[in-house]
């Protein structure tokens, strides 16, 4: 667990947030490695702090990864094409402070059921993805 000042921000219940025991780039590497080791495709790696810098603005180190496995997402989108707005899955690595690096995972399961009528048992499977981040950060 990282030490130092903790910065807390409001986030919805569908977001799970962990503090990383390592620095920003080591955390990002752990997250990417965990995704690849579990057969996930990384569809996009968005450097939001670099995008901010290109607009002349400053933003803490922040990377958003869009990822998934077509075997999991395709049946959901086949059941309701609008559910594709919730997919692919998203995880963000960001630094609240130099010694306070976070990993946030947006679990779309509750939204898929409540908003798109996706069977709850099918939508619940997306929540299991959180475990791989938990394990990656513990290592």
What would you note in describing this structure?
The chain has 139 residues and is of the alpha+beta class. The protein has one domain (15-138): TATA-Binding Protein (2-Layer Sandwich). It is built from six helices and five strands. It has helices at residues 24-37, 48-54, 70-79, 109-116, 120-124, 129-138, and strands at 15-19, 41-47, 62-68, 89-97, 100-106. The protein has a five-stranded antiparallel beta sheet with strand order 1-5-4-3-2. A hairpin with a 2-residue loop joins β4 and β5 (100-106). The radius of gyration is 16 Å and the shape is globular.
Helix content: 25-40%
Number of helices: 6
* Number of DSSP-assigned strands: 5
Number of domains: 1
Computed structural class: alpha+beta
Domain DUF302: 46-108
Pfam families: DUF302 (PF03625)
Protein name: DUF302 domain-containing protein
Chain-wise SSE layout:
Layout: E1 15-19, H1 24-37, E2 41-47, H2 48-54, E3 62-68, H3 70-79, E4 89-97, E5 100-106, H4 109-116, H5 120-124, H6 129-138
Antiparallel strand pairs: 1-5, 2-3, 3-4, 4-5
Helix pairs in contact: 1-6
Protein name: DUF302 domain-containing protein
InterPro entries: DUF302, TT1751-like_sf
Domain DUF302: 46-108
